[in-house]
Write a structure and sequence with these properties.
Blueprint: E1 2-6, H1 10-21, E2 25-30, H2 36-45, E3 49-51, H3 56-59, E4 64-67, H4 76-83, E5 87-89, H5 91-96, E6 102-107, H6 112-125, E7 130-134, H7 140-144, E8 151-155, H8 158-162, E9 171-174, H9 189-196, E10 208-212, H10 216-225, E11 230-235, E12 243-247, E13 250-255, E14 258-263, H11 272-287, H12 292-301, E15 310-315, E16 318-322, H13 329-337, E17 343-347, H14 360-366, E18 367-373, H15 378-384, E19 391-394, H16 397-407, E20 413-416, H17 429-446
Domain Mur ligase central: 106-285
Protein name: UDP-N-acetylmuramoylalanine--D-glutamate ligase
GO molecular function, one term: ATP binding
């Protein structure tokens, strides 16, 4: 059995190691250059690899191919593999064959990283023997080599779901579906919806499916598919039972004959989007019998990943918040909705076909000024020019931070929530967020 790995990142190297451990003849190929640590790992394991090219004679003879989620299906080499009938899998699909652990899978256009980390934290707080993998953390395949965990919490992107076929989750979470990555789906939204709904494949009637009741694409698709699963809606507008909701300052989650409730006021995650993340994570924890006390403790002690409504610091009574991960309009909608003080909003970057009209109501309610941080800000300026008397433009994050402080009053907040990709000025959203944080911290040192 010849296993070829396309892509030598975290997932690809992990899949190569697992393939070797399971007796495959393994070869890894990356058209780019491998990180030094990954090269060292492959060399130490004696796994042959190439970088800077794809040698077709060494790839097209594969029995199976594990493809990096970052490689589109339209790449000619992938097309050739499909045409000759070679099985193309994701690392998740390959690794899932070899684990005895129960699997909790989480997807969604927004919120999946926070929900995955929180679910993992709830299980860890309860003392569960649990691993974290998928679109986050250490390679799932690498962790499966020893297969010592009883549970895995997996963040699943649409690209990973596209090449999953036999994997069966015990608990599946679909947080929401909003237009995103449409360039990978022929600019057809239904194709992207179909991709997200692959999380339901192979679920049994006793398995758990958690979904957001107010997400129209999800509900329309569910009406068509009517899956035979234990379905649990979460909601901010109704009180499903069983399911989860927030009302009167309390989060309530009901799973079969169990009802969990907690006051949301002291919890670290704020805003309606995080209420949904907490509801989903709580129900996922209940689905694997995490005790109420551990859920309460975990919700209270959770620290979110960077660049997601991350407090950076306060200058002259003005709070600065880094939400650089908000690369689409839906994320920004929830971010602005969670603001409870007048807000200087920093937005902009590489537009992805955004419809900014979705933000009109929350922007009018919460935003006092807009700072556009991007190479081409015309679409933002055209849309919001009639709404705000104060709009500034810049291509330097340090200037954006200084402008925001100049426009703010004590008690205001400055929110970096771009609604756009970062690639016009930054390496990625992490780079944008880190530069924003550094600019704020530098200003904190200089402002008395």
């Amino acid at each position: 059995m010849r296993l070829v790995i396309l892509g030598g990142g975290e997932s690809g190297v992990g899949a190569a190691l697992l393939g070797q451990a399971k007796g495959y003849d393994v070869f890894l190929s990356d058209r780019g250059l491998l990180k030094a640590t990954y090269k060292q790992t492959l060399e130490a394991a004696g796994i042959p690899f190439e970088e800077g090219q794809h040698t077709e004679s060494l790839i097209l003879n594969a029995t199976e191919v594990v493809k990096s989620p970052g490689i589109p299906d339209t790449v000619p080499l992938v097309t050739k593999l499909r045409e000759q009938g070679t099985a193309i899998l994701s690392e998740i699909e390959f690794a899932a064959r070899y684990t005895r652990a129960k699997l909790i899978g989480i997807t969604g256009s927004n919120g999946k990283t926070t929900t995955t980390l929180l679910t993992y934290h709830l299980l860890k707080t309860a003392g569960y023997n649990v691993g974290l993998a998928g679109n986050i953390g250490e390679s799932f395949a690498k962790q499966v080599i020893s297969d010592t965990f009883d549970y895995f919490v997996l963040e699943l992107s649409s690209f990973q779901l596209d090449t999953m076929y036999q994997t069966r989750l015990d608990t599946a979470v679909l947080l929401n579906i909003t237009p995103d990555h449409l360039d990978r789906y022929g600019y057809v939204f239904q194709n992207y919806i179909d991709s997200k709904f692959r999380i339901l494949q192979n679920l049994r009637p006793t398995d758990t499916f958690i979904y957001f009741r107010e997400n129209a694409p999800t509900m329309q698709e569910l009406a068509t598919r009517q899956p035979d699963v234990y379905a649990l809606p979460i909601s901010l507008e109704s009180q499903p039972s069983p399911g989860g909701y927030v009302a009167d300052g309390h989060l309530t989650a009901q799973f079969r004959d169990r009802t969990f409730q907690i006051d949301t006021a002291p919890l670290p995650l704020k805003g309606p989007h995080n209420a949904l993340n907490m509801l989903a994570a709580t129900l996922a924890a209940l689905s694997v019998d995490v005790p109420d006390a551990a859920i309460s403790e975990g919700l209270g002690t959770f620290q979110n990943a960077a660049h997601r409504m991350e407090p950076v610091g306060t200058i002259n009574g003005v709070r600065f918040i880094n939400d650089s991960k908000a690369t689409n309009v839906d994320s920004v909608f929830y971010a602005l909705s969670s603001m409870d003080v007048p807000t200087i909003w920093i937005a902009g970057g590489q537009d992805k076909g955004n419809d900014y009209s979705q933000l009109d109501a929350v922007a009018r309610q919460h935003v006092k000024a807009l700072i556009c941080l991007g190479v081409d800000n015309q679409k933002l300026v055209d849309h919001f020019g009639h709404m705000f008397t104060t709009i500034r433009e810049t291509q330097r994050v340090t200037e954006a931070v200084q402008l925001a402080l100049d426009l703010a009053q004590p008690g205001d907040a400055v929110l970096l929530s771009p609604a756009c990709a970062s690639f016009d000025l930054f390496k990625n959203y992490e780079d944008r967020g880190e530069q924003f944080k550094q600019a704020v911290k530098s200003l904190m040192k200089n402002v008395k």
